Amino acid sequence: MQTGRHFLAIPGPTVIPDRVLRAMNVPMVNIYEGPLIDMTHSLFPDLKRLAGTAGEAVIYIANGHGAWEGALANIVHPGDEVLVLESGRFAPGWGDMATQMGAVVHTLAAPPRRGVDPAAVEAWLREDTSHAIRAILVVQVDTATGVWNDIEAIRRAMDAAGHPALLMVDCIACFGCVPFEMDAWGVDVMVAACQKGLMTPPGLGFVFANEKAMAVRRERGCASAYWDWLPRTQPDMYYKLFCGTAPVQHIFGLREALDMMAEEGKDAIFARHARIAGAVRAAVAHWGQGGPLECNIVDEAARSNAVTTILTGEIDAQALRRICEDDLGVTLGIGLGMDWSQAFRIGHMGHVNEPMILGVLGAVELALTRMEVPFRAGGVEAAVNSI
Amino acid sequence: MQTGRHFLAIPGPTVIPDRVLRAMNVPMVNIYEGPLIDMTHSLFPDLKRLAGTAGEAVIYIANGHGAWEGALANIVHPGDEVLVLESGRFAPGWGDMATQMGAVVHTLAAPPRRGVDPAAVEAWLREDTSHAIRAILVVQVDTATGVWNDIEAIRRAMDAAGHPALLMVDCIACFGCVPFEMDAWGVDVMVAACQKGLMTPPGLGFVFANEKAMAVRRERGCASAYWDWLPRTQPDMYYKLFCGTAPVQHIFGLREALDMMAEEGKDAIFARHARIAGAVRAAVAHWGQGGPLECNIVDEAARSNAVTTILTGEIDAQALRRICEDDLGVTLGIGLGMDWSQAFRIGHMGHVNEPMILGVLGAVELALTRMEVPFRAGGVEAAVNSI
Amino acid sequence: MQTGRHFLAIPGPTVIPDRVLRAMNVPMVNIYEGPLIDMTHSLFPDLKRLAGTAGEAVIYIANGHGAWEGALANIVHPGDEVLVLESGRFAPGWGDMATQMGAVVHTLAAPPRRGVDPAAVEAWLREDTSHAIRAILVVQVDTATGVWNDIEAIRRAMDAAGHPALLMVDCIACFGCVPFEMDAWGVDVMVAACQKGLMTPPGLGFVFANEKAMAVRRERGCASAYWDWLPRTQPDMYYKLFCGTAPVQHIFGLREALDMMAEEGKDAIFARHARIAGAVRAAVAHWGQGGPLECNIVDEAARSNAVTTILTGEIDAQALRRICEDDLGVTLGIGLGMDWSQAFRIGHMGHVNEPMILGVLGAVELALTRMEVPFRAGGVEAAVNSI
Amino acid sequence: MQTGRHFLAIPGPTVIPDRVLRAMNVPMVNIYEGPLIDMTHSLFPDLKRLAGTAGEAVIYIANGHGAWEGALANIVHPGDEVLVLESGRFAPGWGDMATQMGAVVHTLAAPPRRGVDPAAVEAWLREDTSHAIRAILVVQVDTATGVWNDIEAIRRAMDAAGHPALLMVDCIACFGCVPFEMDAWGVDVMVAACQKGLMTPPGLGFVFANEKAMAVRRERGCASAYWDWLPRTQPDMYYKLFCGTAPVQHIFGLREALDMMAEEGKDAIFARHARIAGAVRAAVAHWGQGGPLECNIVDEAARSNAVTTILTGEIDAQALRRICEDDLGVTLGIGLGMDWSQAFRIGHMGHVNEPMILGVLGAVELALTRMEVPFRAGGVEAAVNSI
Fold first, then answer.
1. Which chain A residues are within 8 Å of D380, Cβ to Cβ?
2. Whose CA, among B26, B228, B343, C221, lies 20 to 30 Å from D273?
3. Which residue of C8, C354, C361, C386 is the best one to mutate when testing the B interface, meaning the one whose CB has the most B CBs within 10 A?
4. How remote is the C-alpha of B154 from its chain's centroid?
5. Is ipTM over 0.95?
6. Which residue in chain A has the smallest CA separation from D276?
């Protein structure tokens, strides 16, 4: 037990702004008439703007996994072939979902601790001369490994291979944190959720679809009424936007979060995330000069601005996390999909600023000191200097 | 614009207790460790107790329609035959969902303004000598018509017909408001949601399944990872309970709502709903002695204790609702699936008590008076006397 | 234990609107710079408008008693003579405060269960030929007896007597509920507080002073720095507005409450209070036709629109209140300054509307019925009809 | 405009814990009966425990200045002589209040940038051979200068001089942050408030009085009903605890804050404040090795653990504060009573922990860097190392 604000530095769900919590802390309203209706409709243009698309957007009451299924259910049918570009834990997870739906899933894995290699994608696709692959599944950022994939380059690789597959991208871990230009980059389907960069309690998933993807839905149908894009994008009654009762409090919360983001501005948001992620990497690099700490992702350009996964070698990451949480009021992320004692993660997405991240890094350095493990002191100062 | 507390008397989402809103108004927490884990696990026994089952329970991040699909996805496969017992708007809606999944849907409609007739069900099923029907879909209460169906009697009819179909019941509109004994009544699958009797903002759907239903899932598979009961009921990791990120704030809210319900006690809750519904019906009956107002459901025993649908004949129900909302601070429900000008609904489920309902009825009587339409004055007093 | 919203029907502190509570539920802010400063300054014009004065206003961090002292401390000095116009509990209480300050307090009591008689005031003052009385203390509404005094008539009586005393009026129980025209009526000092008609949690008291009162302060001094009007009305630094740290959350709350009042409009607010008070009186009159219930105030014109005190005769008012609170979710006011078993009060001020008061009256009638005491049933209907 | 949590680092009002805000965000309750009564009574023992006294405690609806007056009103009468021990801005301010009440105020000033010198106090009092001084006013910590005075030593000095004056101590700026032992140290009257170490929105002031002080009140009277200790410490009715309406929401908030403090424990709280203040001083000392930054208080032992006042010499403190607030989300305190461009303050009291203070110090160092002013980089690291 200690006092002072708790610092949640996990890579999602992230710190909810007071404004968003307050916006949700309101009495229930009518769902057939009144201000909720207009407020709901106002969300879509803002979400599309953030996604860089003039296509369609749907909001599911669901988490990110639900949005994954919402994307697949409109595109992938039993027997379809799908290519997963593996660079961590999440694209394969999405692929497993496609397998359960009856698809045949192929996997092209990135080299360990690296991002997807566009050249490898191109080569793989050139082998698919029959164009059996209907869709490619890839994440922009993997929450587990902390990798950032170059989606634009992957699209170029697909084009270079002359392959007609749909490009489906999971941006859950970084939507609203790093640039994403769906239309400009040629992404056909994008999946996101509200509880990371969008600073809203978990409960909403998003899917964006361009005309090419919508055409697939129209031509091949959708066996799920809940995930079906058609009534959600052409609703003749309000409730069809959500296939049933609207998520009232979440609509209020998301509206407030999008307002905050509009006030700051997309470019400023991305710059802030870059600055803060740079501070984390500067600290890790400094600490690592005297011990085993290092970023999981080897290639500097492929380190995400939303989450950093740190390998701890012989330093007990679980003990480190425990000191931070119990003694210093900082919750770090576990090493998801890794040995929890050899890795931890720092989430730096959403409602985060310089003093928050310096406080988190300060706690990590204090914990390292108390553990009497090898590291080079001065990481926090390196972070300050990097900003 | 007027002042004083607004009365929301729609049949869901219902008035959220201050305690529940406050329980949700908390900073985000870790989703991998800590108190959220135990709190989540504590929800299931309470939900099962309320459903009267020793079977399995799953909590979907979804609305009631999502829970419908969650129930179907584990039971119904393309080509399966399903029987819908129509007594309003919602069982057919559920059936449409099965149709979209590829099922063949048959419908047995109740007589107009009445509940499902068990004898008719028995007769229908006796005709199905090949036992082609795999599942029967029925609602306990229909939010649109306000009917209450006698589920126990329907099961007896199925048994009398010797039919092996699964009995799947939608309790969304009345879960936590009226008795439901899943195991004792022989219900195989039950669907509910959090935003009505459970007094929690919309965003959670529930499915309960007995062993017979679970066996179907195990034997025939499930093409949806999101709706799949198996990982959710046998999770080796916490996140599998929700197929992804947990709905943190909703867990806090639902926990508080279930605590409130435990404090009051199941029997007391049901008695309260019966008392308050009786007051509404007493007022309507009284008003109707001098004009066209009447309960939509003809059979008194089939009027639900959760919502009352009122037919208004030549009285303009839209004008009535407008006066109540704009001048008197009371929001009534629209006549769902009916001519909005000839019907309205009063929701009396969840966080409701005697003075609340008397306030609502008082507003309706005031509005009737101002409209100078035919009705017998004294309905509020009739309501007082009925309590 | 029961569920549903609780109805607080005491004559203050009153129901706090959700909007006001939410406005207060914000992180702490800087008190030396920033938006708090302008927001604070915005309160004074709105308060003055409500008081009907172009004079000065001060906001004390204090309750109503504190504001009483704040008024006296600037006007009354040891040895001064003061006249209290007694019509309940509160003007004498204010007088006791003056006594403790060293003033000589005279009392002119209204007839039992009636308001102050202006003619008696005039007669009394004519006797004070030496004009020894420096100030007259009177309430506009007495929270205990429920009386409303005609302040305008009292001023006319003073003028008729040609008496120069300051007229000091306590509007705590009705500020923002009934008309008050400080300047037009010739009131010199007015005292109010935030927790009744102003719908804000208790913690702020207000004093309004016209030029005549300010001149007294300037000429005769003030021995209290905390209550002193001078620095508060001519602050060269922000903190002097409050003689120290500003009441941050209360400023946010009061700002929201005043915004709500501006949205509704002063006249509409007063009309609403009149309408709702009329409904209460109609119910009491009806009940009283079959038993001992009656309004404490005999003269109909002197019954306040903010609170009604009801005498219960041989009906046990404590038992009545207990049934309402424990079984029906309605808290009634005790018979302040009376035998608690022979009187109770209904507060109908601030955030109140028709369905709220009908709910409260319905609960009272239900309780009377359960107690099997003599009363004429139909009081709620009488209330409906009166609106 | 930027995003991420705002850091309020002013020396009060301080960061309000979410738990406290939430505890206040509740509907209004009855003030004559029910749980509020017991909760109110539970506050006094906890406050006394924190003050280290078996004497009396009163809770005023007022800010700290109000509590000052509440203390004086019971002890000091017109013509009384009082000695102010000046070590900043606040003891003289308290003395001004006594002057306005008619007391004759003498002042003994500490040397610039130092605390009160007990030897000087002893010498001064020895000169007062007639024991004309009735009370000595001193602060434990001055919010403006950041000085901490050794109250125990001052009492010893008074005893050494054999002087019978009452020792009255203002602990507003440090109550609940640093040790205070009223009875053990021989303090007669202590004044505090809720908005600093007690983490509650401003609106409550506290006065503690031992038997010697209560005897003065009883013997000499009190001209103020609002500030009078007698009815507040011997209330025969609940409302007398507050001389009127209770501060409902503040009672809920203070209860929660005291619960948090009990959970952490008095010693742990004091140790935390010492640790965090040490970190601030380490950073300032480090920065000062390359430029003009220095602690205002020269004597290290006299630097308070609640607030640090930093002199900036030729560095523009206003520009520094502006960068921190506008660009980095950190609000620093102004140089109260000093040239705002040559000093600033860091509040580190109440709801504060290591990552919070490291975040604040990081922001200051970032601002210094951006301003390109002389300082030695590495202050944040020095802070980390000091912890």
1. 358, 362, 380-381, 384
2. B26
3. C354
4. 18
5. yes
6. A4
Q: Please determine, for residue B167, whether its predicted confidence score (pLDDT) is greater than 90.
A: yes
**Chain C environment of B361 (Cβ under 8 Å):** 358
Question: What is chain D's length?
Answer: 387
C-alpha–C-alpha distance, residues B285 and B268, integer Å: 25
Alpha helices per DSSP H over chain B: 18-24, 35-51, 64-75, 90-100, 118-127, 151-161, 182-185, 211-220, 229-233, 248-264, 266-288, 317-328, 354-371, 379-386
- Tokens representing D357 are 């203070």
Residue D2 token pair: 């930027």
Q: What is the rounded distance in angstroms from the CA atom of residue A371 to the CA atom of residue A361?
A: 15
Please report, in tens digits, the pLDDT of each residue of chain C (387 residues total): 678 999 999 999 999 999 999 999 999 999 989 999 999 999 999 999 999 999 999 999 999 999 999 999 999 999 999 999 999 999 999 999 999 999 999 999 999 999 999 999 999 999 999 999 999 999 999 999 999 999 999 999 999 999 999 999 999 999 999 999 999 999 999 999 999 999 999 999 999 999 999 999 999 999 999 999 999 999 999 999 999 999 999 999 999 999 999 999 999 999 999 999 999 999 999 999 999 999 999 999 999 999 999 999 999 999 999 999 999 999 999 999 999 999 999 999 999 999 999 999 999 999 999 999 999 999 999 999 999
Query: B109: closest CA among B130, B126, B124, B131?
Result: B124
Check residue B297 and give left, alpha or beta (phi > 0: left; psi -120 to 50: alpha): beta
Alpha carbon A257 to its chain's center: 16
Q: Could you tell me which of D40, A200, B356, D22 has the C-alpha nearest to residue C21? A: D22
Q: Which of B335, B324, B310, B339 is nearest to B371 (CA)?
A: B324
pLDDT tens for residues D79-96?
999 999 999 999 999 999
Residue with tokens 């007609």: A164
In this predicted structure, the answer to whether residue B289 has a pLDDT above a threshold of 90 is: yes
Yes or no, beta carbons of B62 and A96 under 8 Å apart? no
**Tokens for B332?**
């009534």
Residue A1's pLDDT band, with cuts at 50, 70 and 90, is low
Yes or no: say if C344 and C292 are a contact pair by the CB < 8 Å rule: no
Distances (CA, A) of A45 to A255, A258, A387, C209: 11, 11, 33, 53
Could you tell me which residues come within 8 angstroms of residue C126 by beta carbon, excluding any fewer than 6 positions away?
C161, C163
Rounded to an integer, the average pLDDT of D202-220 is: 98
∠ Cα D51 D52 D58 (to 5°): 45
C223/D100 CB distance under 8 A = yes
| B10-32 confidence digits (pLDDT tens) | 999 999 999 999 999 999 999 98
Q: How far is CA D255 from CA A381, B342, B366, D37, D262, in A?
A: 40, 53, 44, 12, 10
State which residue of chain D sits closest to C14, comparing Cα positions: D28
Q: Do the Cβ atoms of C87 and C108 come closer than 8 Å?
A: no
The residue behind tokens 């303050």 is D345
A239 in Cβ contact with A26 (< 8 Å): no
- Distance (Å, rounded) from C-alpha A317 to C-alpha A325? 12
DSSP structure class, residue B239:
G
Reduce the DSSP state of residue C251 to 3 states and report it.
helix
CA–CA dist D339, D318 (Å, integer) = 10
Please list, in sequence order, all residues whose beta carbon lies within 8 angstroms of the beta carbon of residue C226, skipping any fewer than 6 positions away: C60, C243, D62, D65, D66, D68, D69, D97
- DSSP codes of every residue in D259-326: HHHHHH-HHHHHHHHHHHHHHHHHHHHHHHTTSS-EES--SGGGB-SSEEEEE-TTS-HHHHHHHHHH
B-to-C residue pairs, Cβ atoms closer than 8 angstroms: 142
